Prior knowledge:
Blueprint: E1 15-18, E2 26-28, E3 34-43, E4 51-56, E5 67-73, E6 78-84, E7 91-94, E8 96-101, E9 104-109, E10 114-118, E11 125-129, E12 132-134, E13 136-145, E14 154-160, E15 167-171, E16 175-181, E17 185-193, E18 202-209, E19 212-213, E20 215-220, E21 231-238, E22 245-250, E23 253-254, E24 262-265, E25 274-279, E26 285-286, E27 289-291
Parallel strand pairs: 2-10, 12-18, 19-26
Antiparallel strand pairs: 1-3, 3-6, 4-5, 4-8, 7-10, 8-9, 11-13, 13-16, 14-15, 14-17, 17-18, 20-21, 21-24, 22-23, 22-25, 25-27
Amino acid sequence: FAVFWVNGSVGQPNTISTGTITGFPFCESAATGASFSVPFTISGSFNSGNVFTAQLSDAGGNFGSPVTIGTLNGVNNGTISATIPAGTLAGTGYRIRVNGSDPSTTGTDNGTDLVIHSTPTDPASASVNPTTVCSGASTITLTATGGSAGSSGGELKWYEGGCGTGTYIGSGNGVTVTRTLTSSTTFYCRWESISCGNSACASTTVTVNPILPVSVYITATSTTICEGSNVTFTAHPTNGGTPPTYQWNRNGTPLPGETGATFTTNTLVNHDEITVTMTSTATCPNPATVTSEKL
């Protein structure tokens, strides 16, 4: 007697073996999937019009609700161009198999767990504290909100002067660094993953003000007077601010209530010395407080 297999060879059932999948771990985002090739080999005979379909399991390797990731019309060994859909959950136990449609044939899976990672997501914003510093060495704290390195892990990294192209200055959120800054400077942060690239950058700018040299000198309506005569002293500030604060002094002793830009008196005696101490209210004064030469 003879044994026949319908739509197949005598004594040989149809089989489909999924080949080795390369290129993983695969990286996908909410907007972009991951593309790769699925090779397979067959035995037996498939009919004209047959469609080979590549399917993706769930993250545990189960094909209870498989996802179609690519198809190929044909009857011979081949390679299917496949794409893992955007938004597929990250996992480490995915499998892929290839099925045939005519005759209906369920293939074996690839035999190795596949890893799908989510890609980094962008930080929503970045900030620096303080936002304004004086030229020179400054300690600042850099903070970002939102984003992540993705499921493969990674770090939030900070750069000065360029997104990934500037000077690397540290990693982490709320990182405190000391930098020498001479002009307003922009800092950039991005999530850098172990396996799936980098996010876009968020940036923040610190305003750097120049150091202002502070000085003050005084003039008098007269430097030679008769006893009991009025004389008025006037302060002339450089980078005093708007306005500076003053304290007039006689022979090194502060005069109570004499805190204006001018000082008038008729009680001077021979060899009295007048000075003024000024505290600048300007941004970045150096020094903040100075005392004039004596008159």
